[in-house]
Design goal:
The complex is a heterodimer. Chain A is α/β, with parallel strands linked by helices. Chain A has 8 helices and 20 strands. The longest helix of chain B is centred in the first third of the chain and has 19 residues. Classes of the chains: A alpha/beta, B mainly alpha. Chains A and B meet through helix 1, helix 2, strand 5 and strand 7 of A and helix 3, helix 4, helix 5, helix 6 and helix 7 of B.
Chain lengths: ~425, ~180
């Protein structure tokens, strides 16, 4: 249990005062009294300012939800600590969490508190605020601690890469949205002119054609519908080294940030977005729309851990994509099972695109005992197999693009939309 | 508390620990102008203890090192009252204050300038007890010392400390003065 204890300084002042006083009294040496007089005063002051009660200490973060790269303050609160003069904080250095001061060690006077600045540098689960605290009474007579605070676990959301796509979804099949549909509806884009039918709106009457043909004609427009977008994120493994936000990215960093950007863009555009993570916990978010749904998706992405799911047979992966769904697979395409599942999706007629998340200079993490020459050869063979997989995807008509920030998918979406609108030959 | 590692000391720690180590040595060297210097091997022992004290300021080494300085002064000065004792007291106070500052946190903690300033003022104020006692003792030298004079002297010092807490309020005093 924490309690106020005498410091080494107080013990030293008391010891020197007692020894000096004893020498001066017993041996009659007044000069020793001159030497120890300040120590007696220090000891008395330290004893006089002994704190009366026990202190309670806790920390809180100024912001509960954080994105990678954002900063917040870790504020230390004291209760029952009116007698505290000085506070020392020693924060544990957590992976991908930047602190200010950099080493997380600093102190301040209790009546002028200074919060610790914290900034998570990478998405995922981070423990923030694990630290040791020391409290000192005036004249450094007594100390409380150092004692440990466990810190708070926070899920850091992926950074929002600016994604401002102007491309439409290839096969929108919803109710109301921003994507032009093949169906005729109440959109804004001109589709054609046809004879008037009961129920048509009078403001749609095209008077020029009607006068020329002596029969009422109306303008028809294409419907604007939402679409369903399924994001499939490959979290089977993480390739490359992550340096945090703004620095070198691993394959999972690219996948998470791209998925966050795409999800935000389409949710804000009114589309229904679902998420399927092929990883250790196989997270899944059903189709939905709206701000709350977006936060659910981002929160799910923040909880992703790379690894092979224990209870899923990779060879029989199913994504649960329905008709009218656009599927975006974010993957480094180093898994044969995932590539096969993607080809199956393409064959089912759904518009599918693959975002290649493997950084160009990525290297796999290998055990220290592995021969680097063998590891290099194995990696090159793996990459050769990957090229074969990508060729196979291209052969079945699945576009593969490397994530390059905003508008990466624009051209692909346009091509898929044109392909969807092209007439198809059905063999009976 | 675990042992200090010099590699982790901040520049302020190095400076403060130098004061911790040198204070007792300079206090011993203050005996030289009195005409009765301490023995060389005693100064050497104090120097070595001072270095150990600087490395581990939170143990008993500080008390032991300072105690050795007191014994040397008692032995060499006898019943005399050289004014250099006041200077020696200042050196011992400086060493004690520096050790106190080092003990505010781990080796990696840079000692805040505001904390150093506050303790510099405090050290200067408590040091004034040394010349005050020197003057009182000098004034009483010519008179035959009553048997309980030194006890009275100690009582005066403690009373002075109590008065000082009123002149230089701490957080405890400020709290009690609030309406």
């Amino acid at each position: 249990m924490n309690r106020w204890r005498a410091t080494a300084s107080l013990a030293r002042a008391l010891g020197v005062g007692a020894v000096g006083g004893g020498i001066a009294l017993l041996l009659g040496r007044p000069v020793v009294l001159v030497l120890v007089a300040p120590f007696v005063v220090l000891a008395a002051l330290g004893l006089m300012t002994k704190p009366a009660g026990n202190a309670a200490v806790w920390t809180r973060l100024a912001h509960g939800t954080l994105q990678e790269g954002q900063g917040t303050l870790s504020e230390l609160s004291l209760s029952g600590a009116d007698d505290v003069e000085w506070v020392t904080r020693v924060s544990a250095l957590a992976e991908y969490v930047a602190l200010s001061p950099t080493d997380g060690v600093y102190g301040y006077f209790a009546d002028d508190p200074v919060p610790l600045k914290v900034s998570p540098r990478r998405w995922g689960r981070r423990r923030i605020g694990e630290e040791k605290i020391g409290l000192f009474s005036p004249w450094a007579g007594y100390r409380w601690g150092p004692f440990g605070l466990p810190g708070l676990e926070a899920y850091v959301l992926p950074a929002k890469t600016p994604y401002d796509s102007v491309a439409e979804a290839p096969q929108p099949l919803g109710l109301i949205g921003r994507n032009r549909s093949r169906r005729v509806g109440s959109g804004t884009e001109f589709s054609g002119i046809r004879p008037y039918q009961p129920g048509d709106r009078l403001k749609r009457i095209n008077w020029r054609v009607s006068l020329r043909t002596d029969a009422l004609h109306v303008v028809t427009t294409r419907a604007e519908e939402d679409t369903a977008l399924l994001l499939v994120v490959d979290a089977l493994a993480d390739y490359g080294v992550s340096g945090g936000v703004g620095r070198e990215e691993s394959s999972l960093d690219v996948g998470m940030r791209a998925a966050a950007a795409i999800a935000e863009q389409h949710v804000r555009g009114g589309d229904r977005v679902a998420l399927r993570v092929i990883g250790y916990a196989a997270e899944h978010v059903r189709y939905g729309a709206g701000e709350r749904h977006l936060r659910r998706i981002l929160g799910t992405l923040a909880r992703v851990r790379p690894g092979v799911p224990p209870d899923v047979v990779l060879d029989r992966l199913e994504f649960g994509a329905t008709a009218g769904t656009v599927v975006v697979v974010l993957s480094p395409m180093l898994s044969e099972a995932l590539a096969t599942a993607t080809v199956r999706l393409v064959s089912s007629g759904l518009p599918v695109m693959v975002v290649d998340t493997l950084p160009p200079d990525a290297q796999p993490s290998v055990a220290r005992s592995t021969d680097p020459v063998v590891a290099d050869i194995a990696w090159r063979m793996r990459r050769a197999e990957r090229e074969h997989v990508l060729d196979r995807l291209a052969a079945v008509g699945c576009p593969v693009v490397a994530w390059a920030g905003p508008r990466t998918l624009d051209d692909v979406m346009r091509r898929l939309a044109r392909r969807a609108q092209a007439p198809r030959v059905r063999v009976r | 508390m675990s042992a200090s590692r010099p590699r982790s000391w901040t520049p302020s720690h190095w400076a403060l620990r130098a004061v911790v180590a040198l204070g007792p040595v300079v206090a011993m060297l203050a005996l030289v102008p009195t005409g009765h210097p301490a023995r060389g091997w005693v100064v050497l022992v104090v120097a070595l203890l001072g270095v150990a004290y600087a490395a581990q300021p939170f143990g008993l080494l500080g008390t032991f090192t300072t105690g050795l300085v007191l014994v040397s002064w008692a032995d060499e000065s006898g019943s005399r009252l050289p004014v250099w004792a006041v200077a020696a007291a200042g050196c011992l106070v400086a060493s004690h204050v520096a050790a106190t500052l080092v003990d505010y946190g781990p080796d990696e903690l840079p000692v805040a300038p505001s904390l150093i300033r506050r303790w510099a003022v405090r050290g200067a104020l408590v040091f004034l007890a040394a010349p005050a006692v020197w003057l009182v003792a000098l004034g009483l030298r010519t008179r035959p010392a009553p048997s309980d004079l030194w006890v009275a002297g100690l009582a005066v010092l403690v009373l002075g400390a109590l008065v000082a807490t009123r002149w230089f309020p701490t957080e405890l005093d400020r709290t009690s003065e609030k309406p």
